[in-house]
Amino acid sequence: MSIAKQAVVNGVNLEAAALDAARALARAVGESLSFRAFEAAQEALMADQEVNRRLQDYQRRQQEVWFARTWGGADPAQEGALEEEWRALSQTPILRVYLRAQEQLTDVLRVVGGMISQEIGIDYGTACAPAGGCC
Amino acid sequence: MGTDGSDDRSAVFERTREFVAALKAAPPVQRFVEAQHRFQADPGIQRLLADVQREAQTFQRAQQDGTLQEEQIQQVRDAQARFYDHPLAQEFLQARDPAGTFLQETNRVISEILGLDFGQTVGPAGGAC
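Above: the input entities. Below: the C-alpha cells describing the complete assembly.
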C-alpha cells in the first residue's frame, strides 16, 4: 500500500475510533444515575395528562406573550398571569422532580461539554447547533 | 447499580477524556487544533486580527456618533482583506468547517443513543437566547 493510501486508511480508522469513543461516552452517560433519574422523571411527566395539558396551555400562552412583546404590545397582566401559572406548575410534584432531574443531568453534561470544548478549542455546543443557530 | 453518584460521574468523565483524546487524533479535528495553534502563536496574524477588531470598534463608535466617513469603512475593509489574505487565516478558516462537520457527526451518534440533543444540552454557556 502506498504511503498516501495508508494515511487515508489511518485517517478513516481514527475517525471511526473517535465515533466509537463517542458511543462509549453516550453509553456511560446513559448508565449514569442522573440520566436514569431524568428518564424516569420524563416518563412520569409524559404519563401525567393533567400536567401535560397545563404545560401545553402554558407554552401556547408563552408564545402569544413573546409574539406580543416582539411587536411592543405585551399585556403586563397577561405576563403576570403567565409567571404565576409557571410558579404553580413548577410546584407540582411531578414537574418539580422533572426539573430537578433535568438540572442535575444538565450540570453533568455541561462539565462534559466544557472538557471537550476546552481541549479542542471549539465550543462543542455551538459547533453542533443546527445551521443558523438559535437567534 | 450499587455505585454512588460520584462514582458514575467519574465514569462519565473518564469516557469524556477518552473521547477528547480520540477526537484530537481524528484528522479533521487534529488539523483544526494544529491550525489554531499556529494561528494563536503567530504574532503577524494576531496583529492583523487586532487591526480588524480595532478598526471595527472605531467604525461602530463613529456609526453611533453619526460621524462615520467613507474612509473609515474603507479602513475596515482593508484590515479585513489583509487578515483574510494571510495564509494562516485561510488555513484556520478552511480547517474549521470539516472539524465542525465531524463534531456534528459525533453529536449525532451520542444524541441517537441518549434520545436527546446532546450538543444542545451541553451548551453553549448561557444557553438559548
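Note for the figure: Chain A has a mean pLDDT of 89.
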